[in-house]
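Re-running the complex after MR caught last week's input typo. The corrected sequence lines follow. Everything else is unchanged.
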Amino acid sequence: MKPGCIWRTLRGAVCLFVALYMLVPIAIVVVISFSSGQFLSFPPPGFSLQWYRALNDPAWTSSLATSVEVMIPAALLSTCLGLGAALMLQREGLPGAPLIRGVLLSPLVIPVIITGAAFYSVFRPLGLHGTILGLIVAHTVLCIPYALTTITSSLAMVDWRIAQASASLGARPFTTFRRVTFPSISSGVISSFLFSLVVSFDEVVVSMFVSGPDARPVTVQMWSNIRGDVDPTIAALASVLFVFALLILLLEAIFGRGEATEQ
Amino acid sequence: MKHNDKQTLLKISGLQKHYGSTAAIADVSLELREGELLTFLGPSGSGKTTVLMSIAGFVQPTAGSIDLAGKPLLPLEPYQRDIGMVFQSYALFPHMTVAKNVAYPLSIRRMPKAQIEEKVARVLELVGLPQHANRLPSELSGGQQQRVALARAIVFEPRLLLMDEPLAALDKKLRAKMQMEIMRLHRELGVSIIYVTHDQEEALVMSDRIAVFNHGRIDQIGTPSELYDAPKTRFVADFIGESNLFDGKIQASGADGVWCALPCGATIRLAEANSVRKDESIVVAVRPERIRVHHASHEPECENVLPAVVSEVAYLGQARKYLVRTSTGTEIVALEQLAVQGQRTFEIGEPVVVSWRASDTREVNS
Amino acid sequence: MAAVVRLMRRSDWLGVPAVLLVLGMFAWPVVSFLAKSVTDPHVGLQNFVSVATDSVYAKVLSNTVVISATTTIFTLLLGYPVAYTIARASGRRRRLMIFVVLIPFWTSLLVRTFSWMILLQPHGVINSLLLASGLIEHPLELIFNRTGLFIAMVQMQLPFLIFPLFNVLSKIDDAYMRASANLGASPFTTFWRVYFPLSMPGIVAGSMLVFVTSLGYFVTPALLGGLRDMMVAQLIDEQVADIGTWGVPAALSVILLCGTAMIFLIIKRATGATRKGARR
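Corrected-run output:
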């Protein structure tokens, strides 16, 4: 038993270390965002909301607004397109299905730096560079793989016999879809939308190459700030991004694919 | 096979295992004699597997002791116990070939390579798989995997072999064949075996003795014929083979036997009973194959005769099973062997008379 | 084209918008960008030649591989015990551990990198704690060098190793371990001869994912690494955004992609071969 105890204690120590390793950095950022001091010192001298108030600055509010203006259409579009693609890919005998799926998933596989540079080279002549539309297009493309995989796994859990039953009862394909299939995958669709929101909101590298002075999401604004003078405003902003992602995760856990109890 | 003169290899005393307030093993004591094949028989949840796992070391009993060849077993870790075990799922290491699987316990014991090869070859020959040595478990059939698991468990010549429902995953014909194989190996090797199963036919075929488990206790231990002909409890009478079970009250007793009254009004006679006090409750068991079915007008010369109507008939190939119902609603199962020529068949709804001897009527504890 | 349209069923049209968008607004831009490696500024392979001969480019490429490989090794060393513990846990404890590991996964890359900047600065949290406790006399250099980069990258990549590995580990049947113990193997022997070999597919899957994604890292080395730790993504960015050339960054991108693809293929062949070889 004794040598076993040593290994187990060692393992426990590593797990504890990793847990702290995962959580402490972000926890410190959140703590610093409430700092009453002027610098990024830890522990902070006191509690204050000054940095959250500093977010009221037009530079931040406009970039936050841009982020929202981009992420909602991008998430909606990618979810719809992903839904269509998932439905198309699920029928048997589709010629070239693996290839099509590979193409649709490729934005996930190609390193974002290459994607960013590619958008940069193409968007300029098209006039999409530095526009909200350009950002929406870029983010939609990046979110489609997430939407596709989420909805595909949701479709995989559907019992196709109920769709067959619906057809045998006289319902046309679209009616069957609307009244039988879609309710079954609705949680998957919601998950896909929520994931896409987070992906778009957190996107930084591709956004860097596509944004301009009139269309700059908050992540790009942060990026340029971080390399300059850093003050706890960034910490406040980082906390906002973190809480947003956490909230979306919570929503997803409640409404999303997690519960597969639909009939 | 008489083993009265053989030594005790394994002794279990007062074994208990509680999970919270539930007792998986309530109080189990038994002795395994050297060289015998003892079966733990019982339904799922009866405790038989828990006792086996306690012997193997994967379950820590809450109370009691287990001694192997006189030495206490419980303080030892599973890998120190030197007991062979065949798991229900075989648990053959998927990343090792058959030969490597079988060689594993020998290489752990740091046997020289040449000796390992020799032993592995010999035991694979013994189980009939010499040419499969370099295959992976995934390439073998269920029956072949089972034999490899067996080979691996005996290659290091343990004194005790534990088998946890090893044939449960096989189909009926293969199971029957493997039962014979295991019995042959048992004879040739002389190793002591504890065999866990829920299949009472299997137990009757293979065992020297059977321990019947019921809700964490052993209801009865004995040879197959002892358990079959003289079941001590209602559970054993019902679990091993089939029994007709009647609850009744003692009416009278005398030199000819004991009479007991059934709730439906009929009176049946036993040869003997534990207590003969009037109005005492008693549970009586009669085996279906001891009950004869006759034409309604027939008057058989048996102590117990009851009129009834046939409600179901089942044809079993070598026998025919009748379910008859008396006028007061008591259901009786009778099994007629079809070996006798010219036996007539009774139809559903036909009035008949069933009969059996008092000496075939046994009292069981409830 | 007409033949393709005729073969399509009604449901197939649903996927057309997605395919068109990804082909037109992703595949086409990427391919045309990569093509610039052999067309910009003149047609030919001179971009690849300069990448191969210039020592700066060579250093950056070797940095990328070395940093990615080292990150992978550290991630594996830390992640294996965690994945093992999660696989052995059940119910609430398991869900809690998975949640803890997932948090960085869902936190924005920028936020995570920024948090490390705060922690690793000379006056940052870690140094303050170490100085205060008396363990060191001068602040450690943890930022703008490879040490800080590793510390951050390992934390970010841990979920990508832990999850594929955990997936494989959780499927290893307990019965194998019990059988090994029953056959006389000590717990260490059981781990080394039974559990570890069976976990190999998970190790390969997780390591490959970590290595390949590390190759393309940009934000973290840009903010936390030193000048000598420049990785290929930073070089591509510098060439495109700051200098404004296309040929060299496109060539570097081609190399990055080919490297990624090659690793995928090598690993695929290796895992396929081990399975077939054992059969002999």
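None of the earlier attempt is carried over here. Residues 59-255 of chain A form a domain with the MetI-like fold fold (CATH 1.10.3720.10). Chain A has one domain: 59-255.
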